[in-house]
Design goal:
436 residues, 22 helices, 0% strand, globular
Length: 436
């Protein structure tokens, strides 16, 4: 059990520092410095950590991240998202639960434009939750679709979390992003079926109300003006990768250019919006690069100390089989998701899980996508799911965490069901990447 001491020290230190409220990057840096002196040659190890900074952040796979962030921020700050909601509202018509379907449709579109679940949920929550409650939607019918649709940005490309995972785990970023397309569409369909079943079982959960009669021509015009241009933009980002025309970095550049063109066409362009979007992207990118630098050194210490190989040998000693090991890893992520954010979970689990996945011969794209889905569940699991608190921020005063968590529960169950489907039928995730 020589490996157990470095394993317990490294993982335990990270958890303790984060439990004390230290930012993720600093928790890793302090643990790294202690680990370097204990297991990596002291001052020589510190020199190696400094050298890792430039190597970690100069990885080409990370280049799309800041551009995807700029693209999403421009889209949300400009108000283009409200036009999509307006067009979907007209097109769907007066069916029961119409606002829930509007949220789901808008969430899928926004996911393909922003890459950020937090921004997705914040925007739809502030725009749609008050209106749904005003129309006497029950809380679970108002909050649930927003939380479910908001989390879609984790898996539907361009996913900023997917870019980060691909870079850290050394998975082909383009293949990982494209792998999320079919599962993302399947998850949207499952969410839509859930809303339909809810309205059948409890019609009062989403009361119908009179809406102005809209002609087919007006609906067609709204879709053509407000949704089709967004579809072209999505194709510029996702379609060009699938067709092999552009790399993820090139598609991110095309996406930024496309949003700027739309801002000019819709007369939403302003230098203030551009500056704020660049500022948003700079802050997130800087913190992400800092975290990646710390994580690179952590992975090296983890391997050099013998903790990684020792733990793999220990795990493979159990006769659990590949799927038993996979289930165990998913359960660990779900438990961690109750207490920490997705980036923290990723940094802690990837150095442990990826070598195990390679040992068992898992396809890394398939495995990475299931990890992304498991991290997505962590966004909405109490008591510390980030999307729950965003939802509480836009909900009426007095709304409890229990109410919001209850609304999210069926959507969490469907995401877990999708993980099961992908485990049993890997081609759901691997079909599109195989075409690249």
């Amino acid at each position: 059990m020589e490996w157990f001491f470095p394993f317990a020290f490294l993982i335990g230190s990270i958890l303790v520092f984060m439990g004390l409220g230290l930012p993720v990057a600093f928790a890793f840096f302090i643990t790294n410095i202690a680990g370097l002196f204990l297991f990596f040659g002291g001052a020589t190890g510190v020199t190696q950590m400094v050298a890792n900074f430039s190597d970690a952040v100069s990885t080409y796979a990370l280049a799309p991240l800041p551009m995807f962030l700029v693209m999403g921020s421009l889209y949300f700050r400009s108000g283009l998202g409200e036009k999509v909601i307006y067009a979907l509202d007209l097109a769907i018509g007066n069916i029961r639960g119409r606002l829930a379907y509007v949220v789901l449709g808008a969430g899928a579109v926004f996911a393909a434009l922003s890459g950020s679940s937090l921004a997705n949920t914040g925007m739809m929550g502030s725009l749609m939750a008050p209106e749904m409650l005003r129309r006497n939607y029950k809380p679970h019918m108002a909050y649930g679709p927003i939380l479910g649709a908001g989390s879609l940005a984790v898996i539907i490309p361009p996913s900023s979390l997917g870019v980060l995972l691909g870079s850290l785990a050394q998975i082909d970023v383009g293949a990982l992003l494209i792998a999320g397309v079919l599962p993302g569409l399947l998850l949207v369909s499952l969410y839509g079926l859930l809303i339909f079943v809810h309205t059948l079982i409890d019609p009062d959960a989403a009361p119908q109300y009179p809406v102005p009669t809209t002609s087919g021509l007006e609906k067609l015009k709204a879709v053509a003006v407000n949704i089709i241009p967004m579809g072209v933009l999505i194709f510029m980002v996702v379609g060009t990768i699938i067709l092999g025309v552009a790399t993820p970095t090139e598609s991110a550049g095309l996406g930024c250019l496309g949003v700027v063109v739309l801002l000019l066409v819709y007369r939403k362009f302003s230098w203030s919006v551009v500056w704020k979007s660049l500022d948003d992207a700079m802050k997130v990118t800087a913190m992400t690069f800092l975290i990646i630098s710390a994580s690179t050194t952590f992975s090296q210490i983890f391997a050099f100390s013998g903790a990684s190989n020792g733990f793999i040998t220990f795990i493979t000693g159990f006769d659990m089989g590949p799927y038993g090991i996979l289930l165990m890893m998913i359960v660990v992520i779900l438990i961690l998701g109750m207490f920490m954010d997705q980036v923290s979970m990723m940094l802690i689990t990837l150095p442990i899980f990826m070598p195990i996945a390679v040992t068992y011969g898992f396809d890394t794209v398939w495995f990475g996508l299931m990890l992304l889905l498991a991290y997505e569940v962590g966004f909405t699991t109490p008591p510390f799911g980030l999307l729950l608190f965003i939802m509480l921020g836009v909900a009426p005063k007095g709304t409890s965490l229990k109410t919001v968590a209850f609304a999210a529960a069926p959507y969490i169950a469907l995401t877990l069901f999708l993980i099961f489907l992908i485990a049993v039928f890997p081609q759901i995730a691997l079909f599109l990447p195989s075409l690249i």
